[in-house]
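Quick log. Single chain, no ligands specified.
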Amino acid sequence: MTAAASDTILQTRNLSKSFKGFVAVSGVDLTVQRGTIHALIGPNGAGKTTCFNLLTKFLEPSGGQILFNGMDITAESPAQVARRGIVRSFQISAVFPHLTVLDNIRIALQRPLGNSFHFWRPVRTLDALNPRAMTLLAEVGLEAHAQRLAVELPYGQKRALEIATTLALDPELLLLDEPTQGMGHEDVEHVMALIQSVSATRTTLMVEHNMKVVAGISDRITVLARGAVLAEGTYAEIAAHPDVVSAYMGAKAGHFERGATA
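-> predicted structure:
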């Protein structure tokens, strides 16, 4: 079903990226509906992370358009895109390891205020940020760890902290790049629940390789292969799509039926 324009938060039209003749993203038309969890999946090298880099303007498109809330943002800088409310995480955890969990959040909270984390200012000047910081930590289940150094956190909690720092920027659209990469079963379950929780009041677009996560929390899925859109639909629809099954596992159709890891 095609969403009405008012229900579309992000749209790309013929989005493309080439690197010295190599086409990494080829004519991608993507529509993300407001208030949904939309997964972008595909085999290794399909162009998923390149798409994320284009959407956040870490890379300049070779062609096509990016529309956010109906506004053409194709020519905008990464900072302008972030200020509009598109905020992303990365495959590798990007927290400050030797600062406390609370200070990681307070740094993120200062950006919208136009402040800086100056070492010569008394720490107490940041205390005004504590209530909001603790609310964010509670949202991701880390309030009891506020005074721990980030380096001491288990991997799954580091990822939760990173999500909290992105939430500190008050995103309208949250882009999560491989949020469960490298996690054990318990951490995956926790992060799945976390993504569902934080997506209750915002839109989430995620690149994810774990089919259990994709099947469990995605409202809609776009499949990329060789930089182009191969299929789009619900999990049941893409799992039954012969081209999708072939692109992932050849004849091993049970891969999707089991919700396995890609």
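The radius of gyration is 19 Å.
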